[in-house]
Structure formats: structure tokens, C-alpha cells
């Protein structure tokens, strides 16, 4: 059964009784941070709570595995919009242990597509049109390596301001504990770059 009617019914009550009022804020992040994290259900409330973030504090971009899979894809575009247009001056990439993307088997996922009604001819057409479907759907083996790869893509992106700290972290989805993989401020300092946040 679809959850749509239940959601719309709750929403009517939410608006009618002005339950939105505690969440009113602007579109600009008060803490000037943009976070790329995973779409995992365990992080929906845990991640902001574990970082002491409230509504209005940060921009949060989500993708499967907290990955920047393409330097000119929608995820990278969202980060650039946050930095240039929405006043974010630090970037956090936060992966997590026990991530579903680490267990993705692309061949099995393609089988699931066919089982759910995607015609195998369409799958073959996609494969033969130059898209490496297996590689495109592939997850990652090690979350630390994946986070650091995304950090590297953002730090070295030709359109990213070089003085922007880009941090890499991993969260425990059971406790909310954060482990630092890469300190963006230290990276900039080690490379003789004054951070964009150090002038404020």
C-alpha cells in the first residue's frame, strides 16, 4: 500500500496546527557548511544530532554511499551551488560503516531490474550504447577509500575554490561516532593555502 495518502493527511494537520514554526529559517546555512553524506535511513536524524546541527545550520546533499561518482554530475553541481550561491565555505564528506553500497553486486542488481519488469533488450541497449552499466552500478569495497576519493575529486575540481576546506569522515551508524580521515584545514595548511574560513 502506498504511503502517499497517509503522508498527505499528516501534512494537512502539520500545516493547519503550524507545527512548521520551530523549523523556520533561511536558505543560507548558519554554520556555512555543506555536507555530502549517504542516503542511509540510520543517518536521517542521527547525523545532524551527532554533529549538533539543527534546521538551518547546514546544507545536506545525499547520495548512495556519499560518493561523488562524476566530477560534473549532479552531486558536484549541488556542492558548487552551496559554495558559490548559498554561502557555504566548508565541505564535509561523511561516509559510514556498514554501508549498503559496499555490498552492491551490479550483476545481481541488473537481474533485479529484469525481475521488476525492465526488458532485457533495454538493458542490452544501454550496455551497447557506450554505458558500462556494471561499472556504473558498482559499489565500493572500502568506505575509507571511497570517502577519500570523493574528497580528492572535490579538492581538485577545477571549479572549486582552492581555499575551501574539504573534510573526510566516517560515522558509526549505531552510535553516531565520527572518525576523521582527512582534515581539510590541515591539508590546506600543509600546502601553503590560507583557508577561506580563516579570515572570518
Automatic annotation (TrEMBL):
One of its GO terms (molecular function) is carbonate dehydratase activity. It is an enzyme of class 4 (lyase). Gene3D superfamilies: Carbonic anhydrase. Its cofactor is Zn(2+). It catalyses: hydrogencarbonate + H(+) = CO2 + H2O. InterPro entries: Carbonic_anhydrase (IPR001765), Carbonic_anhydrase_sf (IPR036874). Its EC number is 4.2.1.1. Binds 1 zinc ion per subunit. Keywords: Metal-binding, Zinc. Zn(2+) binds at residues 38, 40, 96, 99. Belongs to the beta-class carbonic anhydrase family. This is carbonic anhydrase.
